[in-house]
Amino acid sequence: MRLSTVLAVAGVVSATPLIDSDVRRAAWPNTPHVTSGRWVKDATGTNITYAGTNWPGAADVMIPEGLQYQSIATIVTKIKSLGMNAIRLTYAIQMIDEIYSNGGKDVTLQKAFVQALGQTNGTRVLNQVLTKNPSFSASTTRLEVFDAVAAECAKQQIYILLDNHISKGMWCCSGDDGNSWWGDKYFDTGNWTRGLAYMANHAKSWTALTAMSLRNEPREPTNNAALSKSSYNWQGWYGFVKQGANAIHNANADVLIFLSGLSFDTTLTPVVQGTALTPGTAKFSLSDFPGYANKLVLELHNYETSTTSCSTLRGNLDRNGFNALSGTTPNVFPVMLTEFGFQMDATTWKNTYSTCLASYLPEKKAGWMIWVLAGSYYIRSGRQDYDENWGLLNHDWSAWRSPSYVNGALMTMVKNTLS
Ligand SMILES: *[C@@H]1O[C@H](CO)[C@@H](O)[C@H](O)[C@H]1NC(C)=O
Ligand SMILES: *[C@@H]1O[C@H](CO)[C@@H](O)[C@H](O)[C@H]1NC(C)=O
Ligand SMILES: *[C@@H]1O[C@H](CO)[C@@H](O)[C@H](O)[C@H]1NC(C)=O
Questions:
Q1: 276-333, pLDDT tens digit by residue?
Q2: Could you say which architecture CATH assigns to the domain 33-418?
Q3: How far is the CA of 194 from the centre of ligand 3 (A)?
Q4: Where in the chain is the domain with CATH 3.20.20.80?
Q5: What residues does the Glycoside hydrolase family domain cover (predicted)?
Q6: Residue 183: enclosing H or E segment and its boundaries?
Q7: Among 388, 361, 362, which residue's Cα sits nearest to residue 377?
Q8: How far is ligand 3, taken at its centre, from the CA of residue 226, in Å?
Q9: Pocket test for ligand 2, best of 384, 386, 387, 395 (most atoms within 8 A of CB)
Q10: Contact present, 181 and 220 (Cβ < 8 Å)
Q11: Which residue has the least CA distance to atom 7 on ligand 2?
Q12: Which ligand has the shortest distance to the CA of 327?
């Protein structure tokens, strides 16, 4: 609607010709986004790269973090002030499981906070959330909080990659946390496809939604040898990935679908190289995603934080999947680094890992999302009000934890990626 208004006005006022970019801005986000070779394009055909940060909402309370300290609008304004254009917003499948167990009714904030933090602290933190975010009440539901984050992102033009981070709402990830692989203790495949479809359908109303991921960091179930032996391999992976992608696409045909690889999503090599998905002989084929081959994006994570060689790190990233961006591999995709991060202090950002990624990603015009926005968590690994020293924000989400990083490198990295 706004697009046609702009065009109508442009037709009347001929003194200042309307240029394409004005039309595009007017119609943000120009969904659906699609892939074209190694690029993501919006509906006007403009290449889109995502540069953003992770906003966790998949831990025990299962709502986006930080709302006891700041309003949603304040937090999104901070993201925007970095020049970023995207967030990776995480959720747990348990949130949807609880809607189903609750007769289709979503859980209230009152219940969510008390369930995760106990009666006394849960009530206290809930009241802090309501003070900072007065449009909510104790009976606001979890999904209504996600909806409010999405609405603010739309207002400030921040794209959302909605990420299924884990099944059971808790800190992620290890090989023995019960959420490692399809069939693990908490990772029921049916609950997972049901949850993906539920969120894909629910989030159709989010203007800012452009993409959904299948699953964060698939990994070997290290405490379950039988499960590991039966399916922790590329052949097993492909079967599950096709189920998840179908679940999302059938519920919402507009979103991009992000695929993550083995070993904590550090490698997608056989997918890019088109080699056998072992121990089977079948290969990855876009024809296995009928009608939506132009929706698949690869995502990788990298935490080689102690590297001392940028050329080694670059070589690893290329080999693990980023060489799909060269356009010369058997399979070509957009590839994004949806997690990397390090301690936020005065000096760590000057090391090889950080400076190498700050040049590599913009040079490749690869999308990325730094881990993590959160300065603290409602609860992490049993400790309440946990301080996150990798957080871009400080403990009460009021300021940057490492202003020297933000001003000395991060904002330039965003600018160089999006320019
Ligand atoms: C946009 O994508 C096209 C391929 O469709 C590519 O040739 C072009 O270089 C890209 N433009 C920019 C500015 O990256
Ligand atoms: C409740 O919150 C207080 C203050 O943050 C904290 O010291 C205490 O450990 C919390 N209680 C539990 C059970 O975690
Ligand atoms: C799957 O969801 C149901 C609720 O519909 C729940 O009772 C069950 O515990 C979930 N399974 C797992 C493994 O979490």
A1: 999 999 999 999 999 999 999 999 999 999 999 999 999 999 999 999 999 999 999 9
A2: Alpha-Beta Barrel (3.20)
A3: 11
A4: 33-418
A5: 54-373
A6: none
A7: 388
A8: 22
A9: 384
A10: yes
A11: 384
A12: 1
